[in-house]
Amino acid sequence: MYTTYHLKSAQEVSTDILDAIKATFKSKPITIIVEEDDRDFELTSDMRTVLDERLQEDESTYLSADESINQLNKKYGL
After folding, report:
1. Considering only CA atoms, which of 3, 64, 65 is closest in space to residue 28?
2. Strand, coil or helix: 68
3. Residues 5 and 13: beta-carbon distance below 8 Å
4. Rounded distance, CA 71 to CA 61, Å?
5. Whole-prediction pTM value?
């Protein structure tokens, strides 16, 4: 079993979280891993090039986001 806590800042770590972990896992051995949330990323130059090319495409051929996702699901099983 595992539990994930998402915090906006390390300053949000409190005794309440530690108490919740203790209550959930009792005397079982646990591992605590702390990692920085790296969801903020910068676009590479290749990514920017692809996006710029997309902006130049004919709007009449655009797919909706839903249709794009449907096609990706069908092709790759996402």
Report:
1. 3
2. helix
3. no
4. 15
5. 0.44
How deeply is 59 buried, as exposed, middle or buried, from its count of CB atoms within 10 A (0-12, 13-18, 19+)? Answer: exposed
For residue 34, give the nearest of 59, 60, 6, 53 by alpha carbon.
6
- The first and second tokens of residue 18, run together, are 């530690």
Residue-wise pLDDT tens digits, 36-56: 887 767 888 999 999 899 889
> What's the token pair of residue 34?
């702390």
Q: Where are the domains of the chain?
A: 45-76
Cβ 51 vs Cβ 43: under 8 Å: yes
Q: What is the per-residue pLDDT for 73?
A: 92
